[in-house]
Specification:
This protein is of the alpha/beta class. Helices cover 50% and strands 13% of the residues. The longest helix is centred in the first third of the chain and has 16 residues.
C-alpha cells in the first residue's frame, strides 16, 4: 500500500524504496501467493511523482529507481493485482499497468497529465503501448485529459470496473482464486511470457514450447 493519503499517494524516494523492499519480502515469503498493489484512503491510488516534495530536483537516481521498480513489478514471478481505489494518474499509471490484473472502482479517474506541465510520460509509455492500442494511447498522452473508469476499461488499461458496494468483494474473490493456483506453474509461466514478449513469433513459440518439457 502506498501510504501517503494526504499527498494523494504521490511517489517519493522513500515510497519507492519501501515499495521495492515490500516486493523483496513478498517474493521470498512462500506463504505469499498474490501481491495486491493499492493506495491508502479512498481518493487516490497514486497521483504520480511528488513534484512539490522530495522528488523535485532529485535527478537521475530517482528516475532510474522508478524505472527499475515498474520493470520489477511487470516481471514479478507471483501474480499481481492492482486495486484501484481512487484516481490513478501519471506515474501511478506505470504501477497499474505493470500489474497482471487491474480492478478499479467505478468512480476512479485515469490519465497521463504530464503534457499539461510540459513533460511527457516517458518510462510509463513502454507499458502503455504494451496494453493500449496506439491511437488511443497517443490521444490520452497528447490531450492530457482525465478518463473515466469505463473509458479505461474500453482501452484495455483495466480488467474490471466495480461499484463501491462490490469493489472489495470483487478484489477478495480474485485474490482467493489466484491463491488456489499452482505457485510454481504461475511463476514459470509468468517469467516465460515476460522473456518471450519481444521475440519474433517462431523464436517465441520454440522458447515457450521448451518450457513445457
Amino acid at each position: 500500500t502506498i501510504n501517503r493519503p494526504d499527498k494523494r499517494n504521490a511517489i517519493s524516494p522513500e515510497a519507492m524504496t519501501l515499495f521495492a523492499q515490500a516486493l523483496d519480502r513478498a517474493e521470498q515469503d512462500e506463504a505469499v501467493r498474490v501481491v495486491v498493489v493499492t493506495g491508502a484512503g479512498d481518493k487516490a491510488f497514486c497521483s504520480g511523482a511528488d513534484l512539490g516534495g522530495s522528488l523535485a530536483g532529485s535527478g537521475g537516481d530517482v528516475l532510474s529507481g522508478y524505472a527499475a521498480l515498474i520493470t520489477r513489478l511487470a516481471t514479478f514471478p507471483k501474480p499481481t493485482v492492482a486495486r484501484i481505489n481512487g484516481h490513478c494518474l501519471a506515474g501511478g499509471t506505470g504501477f497499474m499497468l505493470a500489474c497482471d490484473i487491474v480492478i478499479a472502482r467505478d468512480t476512479a479517474q485515469f490519465g497521463t497529465p504530464e503534457v499539461n506541465v510540459g513533460l511527457f510520460p516517458m518510462m510509463i509509455g513502454a507499458l502503455i503501448f504494451r496494453n493500449v492500442p496506439r491511437k488511443k494511447a497517443m490521444e490520452m498522452i497528447l490531450l492530457g485529459e482525465r478518463l473515466t473508469a469505463a473509458q479505461a476499461l474500453e482501452m484495455g488499461m483495466v480488467t474490471r470496473v466495480c461499484p463501491a458496494d462490490t469493489f472489495e468483494s470483487e478484489v477478495a474473490a480474485v485474490v482467493a482464486t489466484l491463491s488456489e493456483k499452482s505457485p510454481i506453474g504461475m511463476k514459470i509461466g509468468k517469467l516465460a511470457f515476460a522473456a518471450a514478449e519481444n521475440m519474433p513469433l517462431g523464436e517465441a513459440v520454440k522458447f515457450l514450447s521448451g518450457k513445457l518439457a
